[in-house]
Each structure stands twice: as C-alpha cells, then as structure tokens.
Fold this sequence. Notes:
Bound molecules: zinc ion
Order of helices and strands: HEEEEEEEHHHH
Low-confidence stretches: 202-206
Largest sheet: 5 strands, antiparallel
Helix content: 25-40%
Radius of gyration: 18 Å
CATH class of the largest domain: Alpha Beta
Strand order of the largest sheet: 1-2-3-6-7
CATH architecture of the largest domain: Alpha-Beta Complex
Number of helices: 5
Structural class: alpha+beta
Shape: globular
Amino acid sequence: MIILRKDKLNLVEPDNEVMRAPPALYDFTNEGESAPGISTVLFERMKQLGGVGLSANQVGLDLRVFVMGLGETKIAVFNPEIIEYSDIEELFNEGCLSYPGIVLGIKRPIKIKATYQNETGQIIEQEFNGLTARIFQHEYDHMNGTDYTDRVSKFKLDYAKKKVEKCVIEGKVVDTDWDRMHTYYSKIYPNIIAQLEKEAGITAKT
Ligand SMILES: [Zn+2]
C-alpha cells in the first residue's frame, strides 16, 4: 500500500502533463491507497494551502478525484460526471491553488446536477447550488485536463497576471507559501523575483 503524506503532496506546475490530460478513473477494486486515505490527505493539504477545493492531479496524482469543503466539512468526489447544468449563469471571481494570486471572473451555471462516488464507492447523484456548484465546476475542469485560465481570453489572463506583478513589485504578499510562490513567479517574472530576493536577502530553496 502506498502511504500518502500530505506534506509530500506538492503542487505541480499548471503546464505539467498530469494537469493537461484527463486523469485516470479511480478504481475502487484496486489495492493501493484507500479512498478515505486519499481524500483525507488531499483535504488536509487543501486546508494547509488555504483552498476550498483541491484536485488530485494538482498535486501530481493521476486520479479522477477531488475534495472540496469549508472548515471541517469535507466532500470527497471520486469519478465525477456533471449531468445537468442550469441555464442561469453567474459571474464570480475565482482563484486556484495552482495559480497563486491569479483571480479571474468566470461565468458558470449557478446550479448543477452531478454523479460521483463517495469514499466508500457508493454512487451519489446530487445537486449543487451556489458556492459548492462553483467549486465543483472549477475542480471538474481539472478533471478534464483544463482549468479556469482556459475560460478567459488571453487579454483577461494577461491583465490578471499584470495585477499580480504589480502586487509583487509593491511588495504586497499575495501568497504565504514562499516556496510555491517562488516556483511559480520565477517562471513568469524572473527579473522581479531576482530583485525581490536581492532586496529581501531571500535565497529560495530549490
Ligand atoms: Zn484550480
């Protein structure tokens, strides 16, 4: 049995192939890390990172699994399919743990109906409204090898990145996880990061 530890679940780069292809179905008959085991470490890691949803492929696990929740309320979702969308849509600002600081206004249906398996393998059909419908659909994008940045124009995405760049230049902290922030920003803003490191005397751990 593989023993997953939450502190070993590191976020992968958004262009990593595990995030750019639909992950494999979770097989409940397979020996391996148990479903409750996977959902528990994912949920703990999600809370540690300060998110309200986390997909297995965001931390490098090629599994059609995500968790979501607020506080101690955990919803573990295995092998999801969205089967109905409401006609009414709503624009809402979304963030993603894989893109620290990037906030994008995304239009999505306010209500969905989905089927999935819970951590005991039981098939659930459930309606989600409001914030849970929002989070479900965001994570569901990850299950299809896409994400929220694919839902906006290049102009909108560049603008959001520029806003983050401004925060970095002004020294406003947009993420408390320096290691993660560094890995991400060093790719898109190498000069700024180098300058910040010099000023702050920070040497990034690689
Ligand atoms: Zn996300």
